[in-house]
Amino acid sequence: MLSPGAELPTITTMLRTNFYISNRSYTAKQPSLFRGQHRVSSVRITHCSGGGGATAVSSSSRLRDLVFVVNPQGANGRTAQEWKKLLPYLRSRLAKDCNICESLTSGPSHAIDITREAIRDGADAVIAVGGDGTLHEVVNGFFWEGKPVGNLNREAGHSAALGLIPLGTGSDFARTFGWKNDPREAVERIAKGIRARVDVGVIDQEGRASHYFINVADVHLSAKAGFYASKYKKFGNLCYVIGALQAFMGHDNRDMRIKVNGGEWEVYPQVTALCVGNAKYFGGGMKITPNAVPGNGNLEVVVLQDFKWYDFILKLHKLYNGTHLSVNNVSSRSVQSIEVEEISESGSIYVQSDGEHLGFLPRKFQVLPGAIDMIS
């Protein structure tokens, strides 16, 4: 049973009677997710929790508290429409043991704030509803100033889990698990309540705050293509093709140096793209890091060198089915950390993670093994 400090209302108490929509940002001075929220309707929804590793449904009589973080603008508004259609089924399928808070994001980074606040208020799970962008923000919300967000309820004895209902333009992370863009299938996963520990990648640069990713981070051409693709989301998965074509304009392969697991610097000439995978897919279904496993404590690094525009045309099918590791000038290695620098230090080599533009090299990428419990 949740037992908060005297100064804070519990998420459980407030959700047992009401269903709320949150549409404001988190601030550290106002720790309660539900303070001043608009009351919508009475709802109770089931969820099951567990501990580290794979665990079965809990038989506890305490109501579990779920926060659904919904990006209503996702997939050009389709996410909001699909979410509204899903809610009646969600209620009928999961209407015994848990409470739900639906929190609609209002802009970039809002999902991060909502997630941090929900965890601090004692949520049993925070569930991203949308595409990889929404999931990316929710994952970053699990951390604050380089550390996991702590539950303000010190007696809870449990950690918040991460959940996913894939409804966005891209759902590349879900592909690694073989999950479809089927919201009802996602509800079934939540109903079963099985948890598994998954790794998270962290990206560091001197003088900047850490940034986290759960899917794939990448450097140079692919990152530049992702940057342009984000401007064409209205075209659905076609945005990735448009972004790639635009990125090719004026593209030059660059010499880079890398340091793996704190070892010696190695020179990689004429790098076209460097991808760091915690999971397998990016760019709308491209199996770029086919050996990546989100729970094995490693990241897979794939480097493409000296690729020309026609190489991508001739070998695109291999990139999508994950057989490109057999191609000349493609290498792969498993790492716990990797530092990447451009030798010429032009400051123009793009870096992105989970489709979000993060700036330019240099960067250090490393894995946080088993950092998050995920409903799987």
Automatic annotation (TrEMBL):
A GO cellular component entry from the record: membrane
Keyword Nucleotide-binding appears in the UniProt entry: yes
Lineage: Eukaryota, Viridiplantae, Streptophyta, Embryophyta, Tracheophyta
Domain DAGKc: 61-207
GO BP: phospholipid biosynthetic process; sphingolipid metabolic process
Entry coiled-coil feature ranges: none
GO molecular function per UniProt: ATP binding; kinase activity
Protein's name according to its UniProt entry: Sphingoid long-chain bases kinase 2, mitochondrial
Alphabetical UniProt keywords: ATP-binding, Kinase, Nucleotide-binding, Transferase
